[in-house]
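Tokens as discussed.
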């Protein structure tokens, strides 16, 4: 409340404003207070500005860490647009909408909420990694299809000669990556395909709905009864219909029905596609069937089902941190086109090339066995054949569990499939609206051009000499932009920055090399 005078009251008249205290432990950002549980909640405020700029914060004196944690919690409650995160590394991260908002939050944290001295890192600008379609012709109208395939082959040979590729990795000219687990018991083949821009935008805007879909599917897999409202099911069905309308063409035929998972974190703008021949698994949309459809899986599908989550986990790890600069992936579809499991006996004879299913009992033989003296005596009496199998099992044990090997293999296969396609970084972009007079338009355009901004359109405000310019500006180039444009225009131009979208940044080979070296 703005006033310092606070009086306790028992009743409140209509059309008056009052304050309710003691809710800081119950309400995070917004809530609806009611005497009846049946009261529908009020819709929270929807802010156009999206938090995008983040910094890591720590106290100057380590003993004041509890005060910092309490202050950041209060800041999170007081500012509806700010976000407070704790990363896996233990860092306390503050996410804000921009430079001015960041400075305001830091001042409030120092002076009002935590009231301690804090150390703030440099602003961290997020990027995204993606793949694009290879160009058909170059700048001089020469065909590039065969050149791209030859370049992939030469790249794989060069990495293999330098020892950066293992012997169980194979990449063909079309970008299909085949990788074996270290114990040679499982093989996966993955291909990376760029998603259409409309599909990526739809998945990004429907992240909350996809998260709800994953929670419903998880409850169904665990056999728990979950009451899902009809409105939620209709929203999920609408998302499926939209994806089917956007994924048209021969290449995307029946793609929506074969979606394995979304990522990263199971609700991101990337898709894992089940293209394994003969492997029928429940679709991510099976909650819409309400038990009407029963998928009849064969024996091979039942065997692969045991390690189904390992494939998903490897996909989640690969999309969480890409190979270019360890940033999350965006707009990539990973298609699993092959997934084989062979028995331990056939793993020694690769020339035969025959595949067989492996049972859970066979896999259990590859785990570390701790035998007592009695079991050792029984093993000796069992004959020389059993004694010969024990070194073989010990050799497989050094690679760890099969599930862990499959997770690592799937992750590496996705990363190499990503690198087999043309890679690009996606930069976060601001929408910039500037009001300026006619005499300072030239200087304003100069500041935008220096910071890699791009003017979309401009129009004159009727009845005045003011122009309204709409442009896009990279978030990485926005620090100090407002101060510079005011100085260059003598205060006659005032910008307003709002996070808008992610945009592909075309990189040259030199820039890629610098990123890899960095």
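Sequence:
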């Amino acid at each position: 409340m703005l006033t310092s005078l606070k009086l306790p009251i028992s009743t409140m008249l209509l059309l008056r404003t009052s304050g309710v205290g003691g809710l800081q432990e119950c309400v995070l950002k917004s809530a609806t207070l009611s005497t009846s549980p049946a009261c529908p909640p009020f819709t929270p405020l929807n802010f156009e500005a999206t938090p995008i700029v983040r910094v890591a914060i720590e106290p100057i004196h380590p003993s004041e860490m509890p005060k910092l944690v309490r202050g950041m919690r209060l800041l999170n409650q007081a500012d509806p647009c700010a976000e407070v995160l704790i990363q896996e590394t233990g860092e306390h991260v503050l996410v804000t909408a921009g430079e001015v908002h960041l400075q305001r939050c830091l001042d409030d944290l120092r002076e009002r909420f935590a009231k301690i001295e804090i150390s703030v890192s440099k602003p961290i600008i997020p990027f995204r990694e993606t793949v694009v379609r290879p160009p058909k012709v170059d700048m001089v109208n020469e065909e590039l299809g065969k050149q791209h395939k030859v370049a992939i082959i030469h790249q794989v040979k060069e990495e293999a000669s330098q020892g950066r590729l293992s012997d169980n990795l194979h990449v063909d000219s079309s970008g299909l990556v085949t990788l074996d687990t270290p114990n040679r018991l499982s093989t996966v083949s993955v291909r990376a395909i760029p998603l259409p821009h409309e599909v990526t935008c739809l998945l990004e805007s429907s992240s909350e709905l996809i998260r709800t879909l994953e929670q419903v599917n998880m409850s169904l897999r665990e056999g728990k009864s979950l009451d899902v409202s009809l409105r939620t099911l209709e929203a999920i069905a609408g998302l499926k219909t939209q994806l089917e309308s956007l994924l048209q063409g021969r290449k995307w035929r029946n793609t929506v029905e074969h979606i394995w998972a979304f990522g990263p974190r199971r609700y991101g703008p990337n898709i894992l596609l089940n293209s394994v021949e003969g492997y029928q698994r429940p679709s991510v949309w099976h909650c819409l069937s309400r038990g009407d459809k029963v998928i009849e899986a064969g024996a091979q599908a039942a065997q692969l089902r045991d390690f189904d989550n390992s494939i998903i986990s490897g996909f989640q790890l690969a999309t969480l941190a890409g190979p270019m600069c360890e940033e999350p992936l965006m707009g990539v579809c990973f298609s699993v086109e092959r997934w084989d499991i062979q028995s331990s006996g056939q793993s020694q004879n690769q020339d035969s090339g025959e595949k067989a299913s492996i049972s859970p009992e066979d896999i259990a033989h590859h785990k570390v066995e701790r035998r007592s003296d009695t079991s050792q005596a029984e093993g000796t009496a069992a004959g020389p054949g059993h004694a010969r199998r024990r070194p073989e099992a010990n050799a497989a044990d050094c690679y760890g569990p099969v599930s862990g090997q499959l997770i690592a293999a799937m992750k590496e296969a996705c990363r190499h499939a990503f690198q087999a396609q043309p890679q690009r970084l996606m930069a976060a972009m601001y929408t910039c609206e500037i009001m300026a007079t006619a005499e300072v338009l030239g200087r304003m355009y100069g500041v935008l051009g220096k910071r890699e901004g791009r003017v979309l359109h401009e129009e004159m405000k009727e009845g005045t000499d003011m122009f309204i310019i709409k442009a896009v500006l990279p978030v990485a180039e926005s620090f100090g932009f407002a101060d510079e444009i005011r100085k260059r225009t003598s205060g006659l131009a005032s910008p307003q920055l709002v996070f808008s979208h992610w945009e592909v940044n075309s990189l040259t080979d030199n820039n890629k090399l610098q990123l890899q070296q960095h």
